[in-house]
Amino acid sequence: MEKISDFFKVRIDFDQSHLFFPTIVEWVLVVLMLAIVVTHGRHWVARWRETPLGARIRAWEIDKRRLFGCLTLTPVYFAVMEPVGTIYPNTGVGFLLTSYVYGFALSWLFVHDNNRRKTLLMALNALVTPTVVWFVFAHIFRITLP
Amino acid sequence: MKKIAFGMCLAVSTVAASFTAAAADSPLPGNVRIVIGSTSTGGDTYQVSAIVADALSKKLDINAKVDAVGPTAALQAIAKSTDGSTIMLFHDQSYVGNLYGVRGFPDIFKEYKIGPTVAINPGDAFLVPAKSPYKTVDDILKAAGEGKRIRVAIQPGGTSALGYTALKNAVAVRFPGKEGNVVAVNTGSQADKNQLLFDGNADVINGSVQGNEQYTRLPADDQKAMRFVWITARQQTLQQANPEGMGQTSREQLLTYATPAASVTLDGKKNWAFDKEFFLIYNADIKPEVVAALDKALAEIYADGSIKTTLKKSFFIPNFMPAKDAQGYLKAKADETKVLIDKIK
Amino acid sequence: MDAILSSLDVTYFLLVTLGTVIGILFGAIPGMTATMAVAVCLPMTYALDLNHGLALLLGLYVGGISGGLVPAILINIPGTPSSITTTFDGYPMTKNGEPEKALKLGIASSLFGGLFSAAVLFYFAPTLADWAIKFSYVEKFLIILFALTVIASLCKSLLVGIFSGVLGMWVSLFGVYNMSTGGNGELRIVPEFLSPWLENGFSLLPLLIGLFGLSVIFEEAQKGVHDEHAESVKLAARKRFQWSVFKGQVTNLVRSSSIGTFIGMLPGVGGSAASVLAYSQAKNFSKENDKFGTGHPPGVIASESSNNGLTGGALIPLLSLGIPGDSTTAVLIGAFTLQGIQVGPLFIGENQTTWDVMMIGLVAANLVMFLVMWFAIRHIAKVITVPKYLLYPGIMMMCVVGAYAINSGIMFDVWTLLIFGLFGFVGAKLGLEIAPFIIGFILGPSAEVYFVKSLESFGTLSIFFTKSPIAVFLWVLIALSVGYSIYSHRKNKRLTPSGK
């Protein structure tokens, strides 16, 4: 009986306590990963041999223009937002101006069979949405925006 | 297409007009962001900041807005702002964190500029269960001296840890070698501290007059009943509170838990006491005009007096000291505190 | 009585309505939460007296919690963390052409949950608060563990699901061991040079809307953003809402609302756990549990009644212990103290009028929420007819505003959106299960604190079994939950032999 209670005893040094739980979690992750490899590994290898990686990526039918366009526009949008905002600090103008551009650009990128009517709609949307969002949140509710 | 272009021009110009309409005669920008060292919008730092921001907005005709971003982000934010568009409001934690060697707390006296002090929260308190054998803080110190283990629930590395350090120091002074009997139970929120007391996993907890006063008025047989043993604020600070005190506990009653009535000695002669003071922190290179303008505005606000009533209503003690005086005063306070912390390390 | 009546003027009810409407707006915008709505409107209450201020704030609270169901159901992005489980069945219902039905179902369940919890608050607050303090670190850890077992019943593949959940927990531990929850403030997992950004790890909300919002947009971009072919959602021809969907769901409603109220009552456990638990219990108790996740109405009922059940629950410790039950009620404390009112164990007795006025406000807010949303539904549901090339830029901007505002203006939170947008996009392709990942992420920090603090206090693992009868009872629940999930996984495997 003594021994069992000793077995459960744990002493945690406060100075090192930040590592205690992460270490447990990491070990569990490793064990689970091994378990997954053991149970599904053979299946993966088989699939790998059947269809090479390149073929499988092609099977996803990536719309390169839209996907990579979106993946480029978004980080740029995030990156310029704050610098633009320093023109008039704490007014949310960085968000407002960059969103006009980003909003229109993203619509332009995503739209199919563009025509005059759609362009008009996109421009209107790119103008109105950020302005309304900015007015309501930065102005009425005084939420800090970049 | 033309319509849109026209609309866009119109929108941009109105927007631009609204930005430039800042107070023309003030060196401060029209929109001031006050970042605070706490992430809570329900805590004392937010309250003081909201009161000060409100007063400044009216006085200077600007938009002052409080953002609860936490210490690290707040210091990062003011590090970018020399024009006074972003300033910080926080309390002694800003340097106490550094003294305890907590991550994310640089030496603010070196890397930033200290602004004016605005208020004190005199509510930092230590409590025991109503049924505790320890009636006073003296009982606690003596018990530790007699070899009893005293578990004190605190939040590590902050102003609440200072009280714990001071208790330990007092034991060391009165009963040398026995200070190891005072041990910290490191925990977080007030809820966690109270819970430790209810569970019997702590003998003493750190709390506050505001948050725990009602617990001290519960019938003694209630599991939740507590008793104040020590309020860490200085006597002269507590004396400035409204005579009604807090809840049903009058100022006179509260004073019986503070020095000199409740004695936690610093060196055998002098009692230790600590005021949690709120003050502004600026970018190190902030424009001197901005500092002067804020000092002047706050001086007028405090002279006018209505802010004092507001602060006292929420159990804060108004305490305005212009930037220049505050710098020296807080540096001296930090140096004193450093001695205590280093001794007990 | 006169004092109560004098507070209940027209302004009072107008403020409740205003608060509820603004709250719904905040809740409905991905990335905006009830907490934010209350925090943002707090300064507005300085000008009001306490009772009127509370009217506004309670409206915001109830509205904010309820509004989250709208984007969850219509565009598969939970408006607030507590509506994650609403997406599981709500969005499939939209895809099946029943958005209006799903919304109405959610709203009616919300009303039930809200009123249920208000009643519990009114009649049992002090008693329940005394019971809630019997839950120490040990019991709270077991509740978190219980909530984590949900992963087992939600995932498609047991092993991968659990892996995803543990991965979520691991990611939640990034940054410092938070001192404000009792940690030692030391950095772990994250390398030192990243600490200016990851000092406090990733924030939940940006991570959530990144995983749900941005990754969906990326996914659509990859497929080419075809409106025409993508799920041709037609608003079902004006079919009258059939109340009969609630037939046989009374147990579900009561159970889910009780779970919500109970979780709300425990300080620190966090609101998102409530809907997650309620959803999985609804699934486990159901005879048709394989229908969950395919647009099964009881799923929406469980999720929405529990997250509104939270509201009254979270007010219990606030008003009878002075301790907030969740992050929104933590902000409410500020409203009380700014008015010079202390909340604590004696609050109800000493402020009878305020207490009564609050109860009326809470009930009124729930009713207003129901009426406003019920009649606005038809218009709200039209969101899904907006073409994607117009809708997505708007969603993106809202996500940015929400992410930037969640910690009052931190740019890294916006980058978190992108990081987890990509993570979700790529992760889904690699077979990672997103729902378990998020549940792990949400519960990770509490699991750590309660586990480590329990051991610090008691120094032995056996305490988790011997602490109290409550602990033993929780172990029974955990065992049942795990056992049942494994059983139903086996059963499903047998029904579909390929396992896929």
From TrEMBL, chain A:
Pfam families: TctB (PF07331). Keywords: Membrane, Transmembrane, Transmembrane helix. The chain crosses the membrane at residues 20-39, 67-87, 93-111, 123-145. Residues 20-146 form the DUF1468 domain. This is Tripartite tricarboxylate transporter TctB family protein. It comes from Denitromonas iodatirespirans.
Automatic annotation (TrEMBL), chain B:
The keyword Signal applies. It comes from Denitromonas iodatirespirans. Keywords: Signal. Residues 1-23 form the signal peptide. This is ABC transporter substrate-binding protein. The keyword Ribosomal protein does not apply. InterPro entries: Bug_dom1.
TrEMBL record, chain C:
It comes from Denitromonas iodatirespirans. Pfam families: TctA. Signal peptide: none annotated. This is Tripartite tricarboxylate transporter permease. The chain crosses the membrane at residues 12-33, 53-75, 102-125, 131-151, 158-177, 197-218, 357-377, 389-406, 418-443, 463-487. It comes from the Bacteria. Keywords: Membrane, Transmembrane, Transmembrane helix. Residues 14-439 form the DUF112 domain.
